[in-house]
């Protein structure tokens, strides 16, 4: 089945999936957030074929999720860096990590923990809250069409 382009959808979830919805893209973002910058390091971490990794990184640069910059060590290498748009995916990845930890691991199964470096403690579970700060559930939400400002 051919994948359909969703970049003209009125749904922000659909447009987001069109841009960052394949698993390699989010794993590249995850690795970049953990400090990986070079093509060879992404490839080593992900075990991804060079052509697939190259295509994903190029699309991420075109989509404005990453940018290329000269290596910080003065070598002739280029490094990939997350843009503001890429860094804004942090809550998405944290929510996915928390969901996976809750539903996809057996009790006692070893897994990596994401911690706050300052306190050394786990992060608070991400919740959906209204403007009043109260937690909201599915029954509390609605969808309206709004014009952009």
What is the structure about, briefly put?
With 149 residues, this protein is mainly α. The protein is built from 6 helices and 2 strands.
DSSP helical segment count: 6
Beta-strand portion reads 5-15%
Sheet with the most strands, sense and barrel status: 2 strands, antiparallel
N-to-C order of helices and strands: HHHHEEHH
Strand order in space, largest sheet: 1-2
Straight-line distance between termini: 37 Å
Structural class by helix and strand composition: mainly alpha
Low-confidence stretches: none
- Average pLDDT number: 91
Q: What is the strand tally? A: 2
**What percentage of residues falls in helices of 4 or more residues?**
25-40%
Description:
There is one protein chain. By secondary structure, the chain is mainly alpha-helical. It contains six helices and two strands. The chain has helices at residues 12-20, 23-33, 39-46, 50-62, 84-87, 90-103; strands spanning 66-70, 78-82. Strands 1-2 form a two-stranded antiparallel sheet. Strand 1 and strand 2 form a beta hairpin. The longest helix is centred in the middle third of the chain and has 14 residues, at 90-103. The protein is globular and about 55 Å long. The N and C termini lie far apart (37 Å). The relative contact order is 0.09. The model has no long low-confidence stretch (mean pLDDT 91).
């Amino acid at each position: 089945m051919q994948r359909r382009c969703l970049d003209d959808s009125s749904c922000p979830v659909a447009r987001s999936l069109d841009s960052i919805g394949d698993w390699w893209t989010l794993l590249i973002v995850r690795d970049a957030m953990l400090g990986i910058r070079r093509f060879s390091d992404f490839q080593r971490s992900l075990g991804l074929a060079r052509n697939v990794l190259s295509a994903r990184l190029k699309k991420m640069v075109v989509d404005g999720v990453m940018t290329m910059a000269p290596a910080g060590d003065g070598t002739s290498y280029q490094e990939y860096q997350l843009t503001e748009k890429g860094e804004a995916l942090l809550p998405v990845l944290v929510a996915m990590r928390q969901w996976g930890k809750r539903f996809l691991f057996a009790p006692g199964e070893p897994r990596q923990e994401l911690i706050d470096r300052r306190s050394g403690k786990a992060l608070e579970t991400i919740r959906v809250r209204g403007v009043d700060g109260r937690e909201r559930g599915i029954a509390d939400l609605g969808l309206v069409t709004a014009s952009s400002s």
